[in-house]
Amino acid sequence: MSPARQRLWRWTKRIAPWALAALVLALVAQQARAVDWPQVWVSLRQLSAGRLALAAGLAALSYGVYAGFDLVGRHLTRHGLSVPRTLGTAAISYAFNLNFGALVGGFAMRLRLYTRWGVAAATVAKVIALSMTTNWLGYLWVSGGVLLWSPPTLPGGWAPGDTVLRALGAAMVALALAYLVLCAVSRPAR
Questions:
Q1: Do 130 and 79 meet the contact criterion of CB atoms below 8 Å apart?
Q2: Hey, where are the domains in the chain?
């Protein structure tokens, strides 16, 4: 690579994160302007303090559970990042995931933060894969359980019937169980 291209690449690497941050802030500001804030405050005042505390607690719990996936990844990959830094990285990534989608939060933000802390990209990919698998395994358990034990009533044109929904739920639960069995009987690669 020529010296001019190397200088351009160095400047691009320095400017790109700031440009991305500016873009994210602009998008957040644009969305914030679209919110009817007086109505938000009216709605919040109608809720009891207990209900707001419960909502905050459930939100904190969801962040903790999701960040816990990265702790499992930390244990399995044996990357040297501390527990607080791993939890912080996962929580920031989860916030971006919820607001900007899986590619930005679940993947790009994790990759950026972990590699910045010195974790190899291949190790980050393993942590991401484990986190995504665990997340989808949870979806299989919950949705499969709902369909199996209490199938929802669907609109007329969509209704395949309780038997089909229960069979789909059973298949989802069986798939989740099969994954756990495979994990239990497999031997880790050395």
A1: no
A2: 49-185
